[in-house]
């Protein structure tokens, strides 16, 4: 069923160029409609239609640490490299938007490069809008995707490519986006310049000229509720597996995105690496003065857990928080002692995080006079907390709401990390 919504949340039916076609007049120019949720832990990006998730990490490419250049005439090797380019990103960035231009490994390659990974400092007060990491990761993935599409179409490696992102949607933490001038200054970092990206994997250097036309920002959390209401592919009301746990837990006959619009005040708790965003919406629209962030997240808990783990087990090598969380959550059975130990250290650190979430929910309960129809927990951090926190959180909510407790939806792991991206894709598709 097509949504019939007010102008604030109107959905315009729009067909995206599914093939990412190059200009007929200029085969070296690719036009795109993109969305990016640049998390402190992972980049979640949709480029036209393909999606990519990779660690928000980069590292300097030092002399002697370079990857071996692949001969552009070795078509099979080029094809294999571009089929898995996300694991081998090696770029030189030159852009007025970047404070520290240079040559970097980006994503998984940065973790194994032999040089110190550059990660978001989740304990710093620096906002995402001020950091270079999100931009460099984004510029890199766009450039490699453009090259892979060109090679797919023309079967050779070009020396130059132009990429024009006609419409781009991204998000910032709620408290950061509230600061006067932040949206405008961050938008300028994208739209005011041409960004030069050099891809270094091949015997021919590939020079990419990247530019952005229209840029849209949504607060984190608010973007997530858009992604929960609307299907990012079909642009109708969302339904199906994403709500199955809710339907089962509350013995509902059915539940769709349209029901969220009818739920009254909906509290979204978007648990990230460095921030937790709390947003209240009603009929899909932000409720004034009921949106905020706290500077805490599972990334901070993970870094504290790594410190505690290495104090007890000094033989364990330093690692980034993404690797630590991956080990803690792998759970390969009863004999997987490593995973259990890592998870126990992480759970000890997340207890403080859980207390902060509960206190924030109590504040919203008071401010909204108990009128909350639904609570949604999402973000990559929701996956980390659920097993340890689900029952306790539900008990707190039942005590706060003795008559009609709100539905609680823990978004499934399959969807939780990309829910903001889903909402941003919707925004990008309908952007005029």
From TrEMBL:
InterPro entries: ATPase_NBD, MreB-like_C. CDD domains: ASKHA_NBD_ParM_Alp7A-like (cd24023). Residues 268-390 form the Actin homologue MreB-like C-terminal domain. Pfam families: MreB-like_C (PF21522). It comes from the Bacteria. This is Plasmid segregation protein ParM.
């Amino acid at each position: 069923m097509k949504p019939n919504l007010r102008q604030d949340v109107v959905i315009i039916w729009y067909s995206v160029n599914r093939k990412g076609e190059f200009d007929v007049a200029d085969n070296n120019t690719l036009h795109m409609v993109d969305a990016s949720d640049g998390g402190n832990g992972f980049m979640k990006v949709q480029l036209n239609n393909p999606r990519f998730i990779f660690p928000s990490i980069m590292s300097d490419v030092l002399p002697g640490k370079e990857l071996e250049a692949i001969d552009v005439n070795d078509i099979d090797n080029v094809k294999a490299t571009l089929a898995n380019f996300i694991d081998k990103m090696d770029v030189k960035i030159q852009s007025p938007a970047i404070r520290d231009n240079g040559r970097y490994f980006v994503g998984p390659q940065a973790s194994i490069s032999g040089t110190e990974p550059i990660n978001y400092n989740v304990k710093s007060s620096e906002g995402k809008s001020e950091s270079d990491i999100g931009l460099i990761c984004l510029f890199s993935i766009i450039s490699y995707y453009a090259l892979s599409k060109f090679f797919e179409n023309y079967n050779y490696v070009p020396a130059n490519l132009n990429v024009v992102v006609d419409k781009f949607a991204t998000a910032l933490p709620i408290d950061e986006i509230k600061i006067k001038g932040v949206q405008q200054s961050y938008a300028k970092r994208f739209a005011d310049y041409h960004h030069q990206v050099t891809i270094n994997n091949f015997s021919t250097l590939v020079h990419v000229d990247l530019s952005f036309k229209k840029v849209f920002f949504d607060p984190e959390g608010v973007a997530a509720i858009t992604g929960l209401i609307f299907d990012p592919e079909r642009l109708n009301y969302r339904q199906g597996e994403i709500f199955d746990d809710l339907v089962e837990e509350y013995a509902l006959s059915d539940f769709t995105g349209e029901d969220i619009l009818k739920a009254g005040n909906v509290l979204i708790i978007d648990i990230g690496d460095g921030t937790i965003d709390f947003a209240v919406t009603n009929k899909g629209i932000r409720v004034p003065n009921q949106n905020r962030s706290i500077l805490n997240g599972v990334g901070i808990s993970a870094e504290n857990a790594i410190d505690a783990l290495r104090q007890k087990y000094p033989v364990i090598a330093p690692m980034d928080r993404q690797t630590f969380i991956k080990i803690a959550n792998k759970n390969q059975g009863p004999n997987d002692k490593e995973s259990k130990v890592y998870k126990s250290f992480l759970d000890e650190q997340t207890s403080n995080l859980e207390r902060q979430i509960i206190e924030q929910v109590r504040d919203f309960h008071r401010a909204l006079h108990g009128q909350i129809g639904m609570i949604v927990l999402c973000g990559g951090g929701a996956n980390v907390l659920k097993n340890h926190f689900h029952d306790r959180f539900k008990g707190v909510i039942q005590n706060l709401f003795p008559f009609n407790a709100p539905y609680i939806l823990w978004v499934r792991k399959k969807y939780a990390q990309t829910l903001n991206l889903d909402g941003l894709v919707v925004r990008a598709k309908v952007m005029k």
